DNA sequence: GTCTATATTGGGATAGAC
DNA sequence: GTCTATCCCAATATAGAC
């Protein structure tokens, strides 16, 4: 919120990491864009990797608490949880919407970086959350193997990432669609695929 | 096929680009892994970018001709083309299978690189192909807007990329599934989502 | 076509004054 | 907490001998 040196660095780093990736972004480029001194990154974040982890954590902290509170509300509700409800609790906080347009592009970037860099970060930021949601899905679909549920959820994440994709656009001509149309198609696509598990072949 | 210097460089570059990304891979690392001289890259491929484009083209050239011949066979067949048939013609040549295990990881890597790098390459390697397939889908689904078809195809590609993913894996516990199980779920997921267009809401 | 050597630039990180 | 200056290393690319 405040215009501190840390936040100036985080803002500049985020946009550059999104556009050029981690390895493609230099600390000099970050500090120049932020209007701060080169040594400020090492002073405040220890290293370039520490800065990257900090940019991720800044965005994901509030997202994950939102996910958890939505899931808790579902599980404690009168009607109980459903597949669609759980999916929505997981994806709604990161759905492209009115707020934070940078969020989706950063998430897509994270998943595009080499595992050696983001593996520990993903484990830290998503480890608990993912297990909680898979457990919830298992309770709703008791007959389905855990691996199948995880695989299906992984595919849904892939759809999300592709739609969020700030990266190269293979299919042109999508520009004619409204934002609402896209979101409608996206949620229908994922929930339709997820429903396949309920009628095992 | 042959063990020429060019192919030694291409093999080494491919595996390193997959693992560390374009910017995260140095020409020194490539030439050392290939067992060739540092200057060989510039001599044979002009530049690091030229080498990257060559690695992509080597894999995609045969893939795209396979896609086109499959599509032609469909359009000229007695029964005519169907949505599933067109989708299969597009995705089957890159489906994870017995051969070329590096292919999927490279494709995932391509789509993870910054647009400034891979934009021109994607245009060159995929531009014609994508237009041909979208036109074919339009003929099979006359009432559906082109943008919606392209968007749906884009989401299907996202599922493919996530399953192929060379990158970080958020959902663990998928290891218990057989290869056939994964492919079955993947194709069911995509075709089920694609079918939504035939019954417009 | 392949090598050595090098030119040139930019990278991350740190020491120490202020 | 911020700055300058610098260390040390790695990067891409090329020139020129073989």
Task: Summarize the structure in words.
The structure is a homodimer of 201-residue chains. Chain A is mainly alpha-helical and 201 residues long. Chain A has two domains: 1-46, Orthogonal Bundle (Arc Repressor Mutant, subunit A), CATH 1.10.10; 60-198, Orthogonal Bundle (Tetracycline Repressor, domain 2), CATH 1.10.357. Chain A has helices spanning 5-20, 27-34, 40-45, 48-75, 83-91, 101-112, 115-140, 146-164, 179-195. In chain A, helix 4 runs antiparallel to helix 5. The first copy, chain A, is globular and about 60 Å long. The N and C termini of chain A lie far apart (51 Å). The interface between A and B is large, with 61 and 61 residues. The first copy, chain A, binds a DNA duplex (18 and 18 nucleotides) through helix 3.
Overview in brief:
The structure is a homodimer of 201-residue chains. Chain A is mainly α.
Looking at this protein, list some descriptive labels.
homodimer; about 200 residues; mainly alpha; Arc Repressor Mutant, subunit A; globular; DNA-binding
